[in-house]
């Protein structure tokens, strides 16, 4: 492990293109990086950190990262842009191997209380990351998405998740309808949350074992997805607003639903 700053070597390393299947990813942001550094399932290649934050480098971090570079703030800015993006810390590390759906279902067989989130065509990285952050707070271990209509894990998702990515599964499936049927066979109730219509059933009596399905903002749940749900619910909102707000942000709506489940059963 080396912590010496050599600009030439550093620039060559970061100009290398990472292929989709390289198994290497970059994580930005203080909380996300610290959580990743403590994940023994990752292999850490390089930590780039600004002089402002060098005090977080511990003996344990030195032992677990192959190379640590403490960079002048100007060099961090040149390489990654403003600190609002990376907070002065970037980790190059191995990607996490995510379990497939059957593993998630097998682990749930003997559980009497469990909630899982499914996202129907939700593509915004910040929303996905925020939802994962809510999941870890309210004891939800998995987020299910479509292979064709959801992004891969990106630095933006990891940063918005604020460390939750290290704990919450991000499971991609080929067909959401087939996945829903599998959950039903494993004794899950399937509740669709419509964030675009607060005139639906707003009785938030979420069952102990529940697959909570949310659609993209604006579009909502697709018809085929709705058809598979046991029940469609919405979040009651103030009917006397001075101006019209169409709906809650999807990550906020998900947080409310997960909190209701957590409050009742945990």
Can you give a write-up of this model?
The protein has a six-stranded parallel beta sheet, sandwiched between helices. The protein is an alpha/beta fold and 266 residues long. The protein folds into two domains: 7-94, 60s Ribosomal Protein L30, Chain: A; 101-265, Alpha/beta knot (3-Layer(aba) Sandwich). It is 36% helix and 21% strand. Strand 2, helix 3 and strand 3 form a beta-alpha-beta unit. Helix 2 (30-37) packs across helix 8, helix 7 runs parallel beside helix 8 (155-161) and helix 7 runs parallel beside helix 11 (250-265). The protein is globular, with a radius of gyration of 21 Å. Mean pLDDT is 85; it is low at 1-21. It has helices at 7-15, 30-37, 59-64, 73-80, 83-86, 101-108, 125-137, 155-161, 176-185, 223-228, 250-265, and strands at 24-28, 44-50, 65-71, 89-94, 114-120, 142-146, 169-173, 189-193, 209-215, 231-233.
Quick recap of the structure?
The protein is 36% helix and 21% strand. It has 266 residues and is an alpha/beta fold.
CATH homologous superfamily heading of the largest domain: SPOUT methyltransferase, trefoil knot domain
Q: Residue ranges: pLDDT <50 for 5 or more in a row?
A: 1-21
Question: Order of strands across the widest beta sheet?
Answer: 7-6-5-9-8-10
Which architecture of the largest domain per CATH?
3-Layer(aba) Sandwich
Domain RNA 2-O ribose methyltransferase substrate binding: 27-95
Pfam families: SpoU_methylase (PF00588), SpoU_sub_bind (PF08032)
Protein name: RNA 2-O ribose methyltransferase substrate binding domain-containing protein
GO molecular function: RNA binding; RNA methyltransferase activity
